[in-house]
Amino acid sequence: MALPVSRFPALKPDQVLRLLRRIGYQRVRQRGSHVLLRAEGRKTITVSLHKGRTVKPKHLRAMLVDRVGLTDDEIDALL
After folding, report:
1. N or C, which end of the chain has less CB nearby within 10 Å?
2. CATH of the domain at 16
3. What gap in Å lies between CA 39 and CA 1, rounded to an integer?
């Protein structure tokens, strides 16, 4: 069973980028405020780098669980 949304923090976009880099994602390109990231064997992710905004817990969960496919243990180790 996946972690509940309440276990995920709200993070700044640059914190999300650092977190994704730790699991192997690399910046492929940027168009405006949108950064495209890829990692071998994982789905591509786009992160919006809007100043003063945060990535909500439900979006962070969707990104890490649904899109990247991390397990609960991997997420606990990252956060």
Report:
1. N
2. 3.30.920.30
3. 25
pTM: 0.82
Domain assignment of residue 2, yes or no: no
Residues 30, 65: Cα–Cα separation, whole Å? 23
Residue 35 lies in a domain: yes
User: Where is 36: in which H helix or E strand?
Assistant: strand 34-38
Ramachandran bin of 73, using left for φ above 0, alpha for ψ from -120 to 50, beta for the remaining angles: alpha
| pLDDT tens per residue, range 21-60 | 999 999 999 999 999 999 999 999 999 988 889 999 888 8
Closest alpha carbon to 22 in 6, 39, 35, 5: 39
